[in-house]
Design goal:
alpha/beta, Rossmann fold, six-stranded parallel β-sheet, 30% helix, 15% strand, transmembrane helix, fatty acid metabolism, PLipase/COase/thioEstase, hydrolase
Length: 252
């Protein structure tokens, strides 16, 4: 019984890249755009879902073909192996503990675990900023558990970033955490996308994110996708590309 449940979670929560590969347009090349000395340097950090891995999500970047992304550095880190409560304590790639599946708006929060994961994400961002990337050109994106971590990481970062994009995610902390959000972090805009047919992270959990952000003065664009389950669609990624493009700062 435990084995079957583990396999189910791995398939549902780690299915992002499988879906993307199936819908990736044939005319796109798998190569990245060539660097452009006139384009602004930017950084996109992608955080995967429970049971998935960073390398499995790398084909996402091949969909971003606009010239604005010629000087974009992509990073697809992998979560460490950790015991997961909703998986009967079995170890699997996980940024932080998840107590139950499906995730609802009222699911228990593993705040201490989330905060530890946030520190690791901040270290990745700090390294890129130290290398010369303008924080306004740093974008953190994530799917499912990675989306929840995206939200926490951006809201707790000491500087304004280019943006945060949450796909099929949820709010992984209680409202008491609000007082810890730096004022500059609240200036970072969010894109929040969620499938209305999601049975793993319920639509209600994602839908609660926009009013949560708006009540603390954070700009959030929420997009609902009818018929979409716990996965990422080509339509979502195409919109993400245009959303980031409009927010990239010029190198001049």
């Amino acid at each position: 019984m435990k084995i079957n449940h583990t396999v189910l979670l791995a398939v549902i929560l780690g299915s992002t890249i499988i879906f993307i590969l199936l819908i990736q347009p044939r005319h796109l090349s798998s190569s990245s755009p060539k660097p452009d000395s006139m384009a602004a340097r930017s950084f996109v950090l992608w955080l995967h879902g429970l049971g998935d891995s960073g390398p499995a999500n790398e084909p996402i970047k091949t969909l971003f073909r606009s010239p604005e992304f010629r000087n974009t550095k992509w990073s697809f880190p992998s979560a460490p192996e950790n015991p997961v409560t909703c998986n009967y304590g079995m170890r699997m790639p996980s940024w932080f503990d998840i107590h139950e599946i499906p995730v609802t708006a009222d699911s228990p929060k593993a705040e201490s675990d989330v905060l530890k994961a946030v520190q690791n994400v901040h270290a990745m961002i700090d390294k890129e900023v130290a290398a010369g990337t303008n924080p306004n050109n740093v974008f953190v994106c994530g799917f499912s558990q990675g989306g929840a971590l995206t939200l926490a990481s951006v809201l707790l970062y000491p500087k304004k970033l280019g943006g945060g994009a949450v796909f099929s995610g949820w709010v992984p902390f209680n409202s008491s955490m609000i007082k810890k959000f730096p004022e500059d972090a609240k200036k970072t805009p969010f894109l929040w996308s969620h499938g209305m047919a999601d049975r793993t992270v319920l639509f209600e959990a994602g839908q609660a994110g926009a009013p949560f952000l708006e009540q603390i003065g954070v700009t959030c664009e929420f997009k609902a996708y009818p018929g979409l389950g716990h996965s990422i669609s080509n339509e979502e990624l195409q919109y993400l590309e245009s959303w980031i493009k409009t927010r990239l700062q010029s190198s001049s």
